Amino acid sequence: xIYVDSIQDGLTKVLKGEIYGxxxxxxxxxxxxxxxxxxxxxxxxxxxLPYEISVGxxxxxxxxxxxxxxxxxxxxxxxxxxxxxxxxxxxIQNDGLDESSIKKFLLFIAIFLALLIYRNRKLLRLxxxxxxxxxxxTDSIKYALHIQEKIxxxxxxxxxxxxDWFVIWQPRDIVGGDIYFIEEISNDEVLxxxxxxxxxxxxxxxxxxxxxxxxxxxxxxxxxxxxxxSLPNEMLSIFDRELxxxxxxxxxxxxxxxxxxxxxxxFNRKTNIVNFSGAxxxxxxxxxDSLKIIHGDKSSVGYRNRQDIEKxxxxxxxxxxPATLYITTDGFTDQTGGKKGLSMGxxxxxxxxxxxxxRLMERQKNKLLEFFNNYKKIVExxxxxxxxxxRIIPTxxxxxxxxxxxxx
Length: 408
Description:
With 408 residues, the protein is α+β, with helices and mostly antiparallel strands. 42% of the residues lie in helices and 23% in strands. It has three domains: 7-97, no CATH class; 98-150; 152-406, PPM-type phosphatase domain (Phosphatase 2c, domain 1), CATH 3.60.40.10.
């Protein structure tokens, strides 16, 4: 290794064949090559050191370029340290570089770095602010979930009235527009409400709170004999009337977009009678080795763009044989996924219910959830999901089941 007076001197010696290459910083050696030796000398490589060190060799010697490149990237740390030490001892010469240009260049770099730091700090502050706001919002919604869970029923009532049962309640977001209630009316009578409110998330959760308030009013009227608990269709009409009044649908009918789909079941375990009324919601009954669908009315609750109170049909069902009843919100059957990305639909849901009849209800619930999650795979959950299943085993003589429907 020999010393040269300047980078330009060293590159001239390389061009004349007096030395094999020149070691210096990438910025310095690159500048000289572009200024005076473009097309004649090339940068071979750089040392793996805190400073970018490059070697310039004549382009007429490709083998020499390969040798220098291998040497420069080798693991001989002592050689690299010596090269760096010797380089630092060389006095930088002013060999034609424009000092004014260098100062301008350095000033540009300083301004650029300052702007970059400012931008990064601004983005960091924005990210921190967004993270704090998101955490505050998430914490608020989680507390809303705590409130919504408080209005969910005591499951001990299911144990008292049914031989076996399960409930799936799975909001799309932290909170949702689906809700279910079970209310003990007397020692033999019980009511089940399954509600699919407008939307999901926080707006849907507000609808469920309204529904709960109206439900408490209905239960109070039942207590004082104003409403017959065996007529769930009348209760749906009350929900329709009260929601329209609360949400002022009569004042602006074109914006009447709040309400719910849902169903109410009345069950008397002494008489084995089930009364069902549905608003855009059906009842599935598996009995005598077959699945029957009891269709609810097509009218939803609170949505209709008219002031008339909806009248719903009451379905009277006498249970003579063991039967399993299911109420589902459309979030289960409307979920997209599968190989073609289509909605699950009622057919697959019905087949799954038939296939799992021999299982205990808890295992059936797990199978439904497993199928649901496998069907949607990586697709996001489309809507809130609620499924209530109850198994009734009547006492006494077994007969053919008789079903009839009527409107009060």
